[in-house]
Amino acid sequence: MNVVKSNILSSFFKNIDDCKIIPFGSGLIHRTFFLQHAEGDFILQNINHHVFKNPEDLMENIQLVSNHLKRNNYPKSVLSIKETLDGNILLQTSENEYWRIFDFIKDTQEFSKPESKKQVYQTGKSFGEFLTYLNDLPVEKIKTSIPDFHNTRMRLEKFEKAVLQDEFDRVKTSIKEIEQIRNWRFLIEDYEALNCPIRIVHADPKISNLLFDKSQKVKAVIDWDTIMPGSVLHDFGDLVRTMTCEEGEESTNFEQVKISLPYFEVLKKGFLESSESWLTEVEKDNLLLGAKVIIYEQAIRFLTDFLEGDKYYNTVYTEQNFNRAKNQICLCKTSFQVI
Ligand code: GN1
Ligand code: MG
User: Which pTM does this prediction carry?
Assistant: First the structure.
């Protein structure tokens, strides 16, 4: 599956004789390669169009954001698209595959989970800064890369449908968890009552979507595919979800799945330091609700996928989505202890 056909490369380069292509990174959604060419180093990607139904839209978003950040002297590296020889930002092949190329950002390192309080702080600050630089780009210009991505109400409806259908006879093993999901329904109402402003958000903020330089400073925010109109509360919430628990979402060490208060505090400090000036009072006062809602939503998503037979998230063992859901339920419980 790692073969990249020469017609793909020759759509981007006049000369493809000395290309070197190696599978790259840990992403589960797209197929990603490191590409060495006489013109330079690049990232070549085959976009998963089952998850992203309109690859053109997300590429247009990325180009807009990239140009906007460059124009406004954003202090970090940005994603730069390499166009095809015909001047397109995306290649669609006759087999209905979508390919794109970015310039490679050199001399970086990645982390899959935070290793220190300092990294948690830097992550909060870098995503706050990213949103700050996007805040004066008109939100109407950005397309919704995945419709209803953080529509928790709709996620809950889909969950109820999956419970009702119980196609894989898995409801009987998840009675407790289903009840818990139903009991937290009020979080949706609490969130909706805020009427948060719709802004441009990253929608997948986590440490693995940052590139650090060799001196441990953040060099770039990456994975811009989910950039879309949304709420800052959701981005902050996802940061809490992924950055404040030392056990990751795969952990079955459920007693240890909890929000670390010192991590929560530095995350919030970093995030607000770079975004406070333009956030509304409602947003600033409800960051914690954002965390509760997003953790709740993730629990719903994992449990729904378990009930539907593991169609969306990759799994390597049968109960994996069930365990992920239990993990997120534990994390959500501890979010009620944060004040
Ligand atoms: C997916 O593949 P990854 O880790 O970037 C998902 C996120 C979830 C996450 C949970 C497009 O992200 O929304 O929070 O899994 N992305 C999409 O691990 O569905
Ligand atoms: Mg992602």
Answer: 0.95
From 204, 302, 315, the mutation candidate for ligand 1 (largest count of ligand atoms within 8 A of CB) is 204
Model confidence at 242: pLDDT above 50: yes
The contacts of residue 22 (CB under 8 Å, 6+ apart) are 33, 34
When pLDDT is averaged across residues 55-72 and rounded to a whole number, the result is 98
- The token duo for 292 is 């509760």
Distance 86 CA to ligand 1 centre (A): 33
Percent of all residues in the chain with a pLDDT value above 90, rounded to a whole number: 94
Ligand 2 geometric centre to CA of 206 (Å): 9
If one residue of 29, 52, 152, 226 were mutated to test the ligand 1 pocket, choosing by the most ligand atoms within 8 A of its CB, it would be 29
Largest separation between any pair of C-alpha atoms in the chain: 61
User: Burial, 76: exposed, middle or buried (Cβ in 10 Å; 0-12, 13-18, 19+)?
Assistant: middle
Pairing status of strand 40-46 against strand 199-201? unpaired
The answer to whether 133 touches 69, Cβ cutoff 8 Å, is yes
Closest residue CA from atom 19 of ligand 1: 51
- The atom of ligand 1 lying closest to the CA of 302 is 10
**Four-CA torsion 224, 192, 260, 114, nearest 10 degrees:** 0
